[in-house]
Amino acid sequence: MTDPTCIFCRIVRGEIPCEKIYEDDAVLAFMDIGPIIKGHALIIPKAHYERIIDVPPDLLGRVIAVTQRVARALFDGLGADGVNIHQTNGAVAGQTVPHVHFHAIPRFEGDGHSWNWRAGAYADRAEMAGLAGRLRDALKSS
User: Fold this and answer.
1) CA pair distance 53, 50, nearest whole angstrom
2) Quick one: which of 54, 124, 110 has its CA closest to 82?
3) In this structure, is residue 78 part of a structural domain?
4) pLDDT in tens, 62-83
5) Which of 21, 47, 70, 115 would you label with 141, given CA atoms 20 to 30 Å apart?
6) In 40-124, at which residue ranges do the beta strands (DSSP E only) sit?
7) Which one of 40, 99, 101, 103 is the catalytic residue?
8) Does some domain include residue 136?
9) For the domain that residue 76 is a member of, what is the CATH number?
C-alpha cells in the first residue's frame, strides 16, 4: 500500500533522499530534516497508513519495537539525557504528513525546548466518569 503523493512513501521508494538510520522489510527510520533537537529521527511503516488506528497491530508492534531501538540509540549513541517519543493523528492534532510516523527526539539538559503543556481540568468527577464510560463502551465494540 503506497500513496504516490505522500512524501514518506516517496522516501520509501527512493524518490526523495533521506539519511537512513534503520531499515528492514516493513519499517524505516531516518533523520528528520527539520529537527526540534539535532538527532531527531522519524520512524515509519513502509506501507502507507494515515492514522495509528489504521495500522495492523502486528505491523504497529514492529514500528514500536524500532522506535524503542532508536530511543536506545539516542541515549547510547548521542548521550541524550532524555528522549521524547511523539505521534499525532489528524491535522487538528498537528499531523502534517498524513502517513503514520513516530518522532524520537533526543533531549539534553538545557536544550531550550519546551512542550508548553497546559493541563486542563474536568468540571467534576462525574464529567470524567461519563467520558470514561463512553471510552469503555467504544473499547468493547472495537
Assistant:
1) 9
2) 110
3) yes
4) 999 999 999 999 999 999 999 9
5) 47
6) 41-45, 82-86, 102-107
7) 101
8) no
9) 3.30.428.10
